[in-house]
Please model this.
Amino acid sequence: MFVSGGATILHADLDAFYASVEQRDDPGLRGRPVIVGGGVVLAASYEAKAYGVRTAMGGGQARRLCPRAVVVPPRMSAYSAASKAVFAVFRATTPLVEGLSIDEAFLDVHGLRRSPEDVAVRLRREVAEEIGLPITVGVARTKFLAKVASGVAKPDGLLVVPPDGELEFLRPLPVRRLWGVGRATAEKLARFGVTTVGDVADMPESTLVTLLGPGAGRHLHALARNRDPRPVRTGVRRRSMGSQRALGRRRRSPAELDAMLVGIVDRLGGRLRKARRVCRTVTLRLRFEDFARATRSHTLAQATDDTERILETARGLLAAAAPMIGTRGLTLIGLSLGNLHDDRAVQLALPFDEDPSKGGAVDGAVDGVRERFGSSAITRAVLLGRDQGLSVPLLPD
DNA sequence: TCTGGGGTCCTAGGACCC
DNA sequence: TCTGGGGTCCTAGGACCC
Model:
């Protein structure tokens, strides 16, 4: 077995993913600036990025920056298929794969015969040859360092951070490179003259906690001092599922809004059932002309995947939000389903006076399920709340 | 620079319970 | 009757990520 000295985590990140898929599938686009998406830029090829085009930029601005760019509409199913193929290569490399999004994942390669660097070289070659997409890989001792390394190595690169070179690598980086530091946090820190990771590392934790709150403060302090004990986790399941629609500037009638809500609920209900899950919390998302946002949510007593039940709840939320919407221009309407559970779960009713958080009631209920469905049926029990009893999935989550 | 669609996690207050 | 400390759940908002 190869002894790596600890740098065994890979962060693999496809480059300009949507745009690369378009260039792969249409040779005429290769070597040319490509923008995916119309209203806003969903992805830009590196040829387009050279002109300053960035993800999430308005389409008009992007076209001004790069008039030669070819703008193509997104083909989500093609990206989804490409993603599946790439993840298959990941899983053939190691079973310890943690997906982060459609185009990136962590791989723990400790204990493999080859060195992590060899594994990374081979992985990049396989993705290029078998799937036809460029991918960048960062290799380091921790997830955080591996992710930073891939960010630095982009595009189409490979960077190994050796365990004895971590601080040297980390300290000069701008704070924005820290995972979890966005614009708001970076601006807060800049007001205190803190601009590099080294600057953050030299601050006392208490100062960061005062500035950013206990969660973010402690997290950032640890990362800046190169402490990141998080393991690569497999089998992480999604915790919410959402769909939304931008409305543009035009005013929409209540009937139009309702029709959109019906469409969104229909789409989500289908996705929910396809994923064999049920939800308990329905959240309505709104955005206004001035980009102010609002959410309204409701938690059901019983988890459901029923379109009618979800629609009824969503309509109630929209009706409750009507006064807030008033005459303000609504520019986005969306719905998010949270509190997701496995749909094969059996909801166990517990005797009224039994508290499910106490062991006896749970044991009794679980025994009942075993009698009905077999002793190997139960893998995990989900407590839904004091009055809802237990949700017990019959198959692995 | 005026903005899409999909997610994650944290915080804070109030209700309620022991 | 008044009081403390600890916990969970729900709701709303915010920051961040790709």
Residues 349-357, 376-388 of chain A have pLDDT under 50 and may be disordered.
